[in-house]
Amino acid sequence: MKLKVAVVVVLLIAALYLANRFLAGGNLSRGSLETVETSNEVRDKFTVGFLPVT
Amino acid sequence: MTQHASSGTVFQAERFGDFPTMKEALIARKIDATFMIAPLAMKLAADGVPVKICYLGHRDGSGLTIAKDSTVTDFKGLAGKRVAIPSRYSNQHLLMRRMMKQNGMATDSIDLVEMAPPDMASALQARSIEGYIVGEPHCAKAELGGYGKILYFMKDLWPNFISCVLVVRQEVINERRPLVQELVDGIAASGKWIDEDRATGADHRKRVAEVVGKVFYNQDPKLLEYVLTQPIDRVSYQNLEPPKDTFDEIMALANEMNVIQKHMQFEEYCDTSFAPDLGTLARKVENFPPPPAAATKESEKK
User: Fold this and answer.
1) Of 2.20.25.90, 3.40.190.10, 3.40.50.720, 3.40.50.1220, which CATH number belongs to B1-58+163-195+237-285?
2) Distance between CA atoms of B164 and B38, rounded to whole angstroms?
3) Which domain holds residue A19?
4) What was the pLDDT predicted at A25?
5) pTM
6) By CB count within 10 A, which of B31, B86, B94, B223 is most buried?
7) How much is the ipTM here?
8) Which of residues 76-135 of B touch A (CB under 8 A)?
9) Number of separate domains in chain A
């Protein structure tokens, strides 16, 4: 019984971890934020913030 | 923003609507670097946030704008009036205080109110403020809208005015140094390229206005073309290495006005080691405008 509970807990944690990774991945969408990719050949990524004002 | 197909690095440009949100994203490590108003970056460093100013975004490019039918004709005429500033932690704020001091005015003689830059032009049109001081294109917006005029360009009040700077997280500097160098080289090369044809029609500036307006800023390219060409020195992209003497002055002003409480040495918040020698800079702007795929990707999301 204890083993079953332990397995369920481990699976639950793993599922939560994967769900978190999934939700945190991809393009950010926080209010007015937008993401623009500027190249097609991807070897490394670097995110730079800006405000549309000089 | 830069693009270097030769190195295969993708620099993702993430647009923010306000500086506080941007600041939080930087602290939370959601972004690697950002263009931010200089005193805010210095304030972050003073508060113990591990960041460094590595390069400038541009020079000048701000204006003190008043209503077209305003009776104000000089800086002293703003006494007793309400003027909007983008942030307490902006050089536009420090400049207003500096100007009041230079003109023998009490530092509270002009009513300075913080306002989000996109709201300033409409506030002027509604006459809820007498004027505003901010980076472009918000000054040009009031000019072209027919209800505003420039009282002063920053280049006339504080030559080589610094507004936004490139701020990079310290661990990014430590762990991804080649990428930071690539980014700074790209900014430097872009600045060099944009002014290559300045004396012969400024076609580069017009092309930048078209692409930046549509792809990055989501603003009318004609507005940006006006900003970049009327007059041609309204915004400058030269001399972008952080200058110690100017930053020392900004720090002194910020300390004096209690905008930043802790006095910091230049080296504590600036890292000039990435600033390239423009004479020997190998990096060149290529493939501009960007391939249609980049623009299409953005437009598809809207």
Assistant:
1) 3.40.190.10
2) 6
3) 1-38
4) 40
5) 0.80
6) B86
7) 0.83
8) 86, 117, 134-135
9) 1
In angstroms, the separation between the Cα of residue B52 and the nearest Cα of chain A is 14
Which residues on chain B are in Cβ contact (under 8 Å) with A28? 14, 30
Q: Are B39 and B90 in contact (CB under 8 A)?
A: yes
The predicted structure's pLDDT at residue A23? 44
Q: Does B32 touch chain A (CB under 8 A)?
A: yes
Please report the residues numbered 229 through 288 in chain B whose beta carbons come closer than 8 angstroms to any beta carbon of chain A.
Answer: 235
For chain A, say whether B25 makes contact (Cβ under 8 Å): yes
Kindly give, in sequence order, each residue whose CB lies less than 8 Å from that of residue B174, ignoring residues fewer than 6 positions away: none
Q: Say if domain B62-157 classifies as CATH 3.90.226.10.
A: no
Domain ranges, ordered by start, for chain B:
1-58+163-195+237-285, 62-157
Of B8, B62, B176, the CB nearest to A41: B8
Share in percent of chain A as helix, strand, coil (round to 5)? 45, 20, 40
Residue B19 to chain A, least CA–CA distance (Å): 8
Residue B208 predicted with pLDDT over 80: yes
| pLDDT at res. A8 | 62
Q: What is the DSSP string of B79-93?
A: TT-EEEES-TTSHHH
Residue B216's pLDDT is 83
Residue B28 distance to chain A (closest CA, Å):
13
CA gap A11, A34 in Å, rounded? 34
Q: What is the mean pLDDT of residues B241-247?
A: 97
Q: Best mutation site among A39, A40, A42 for testing chain B: the one with the most B CBs within 10 Å?
A: A39
pLDDT of residue B153: 95
Q: How far apart are CA B127 and CA B66, in angstroms?
A: 10
In-domain check, residue A33: yes
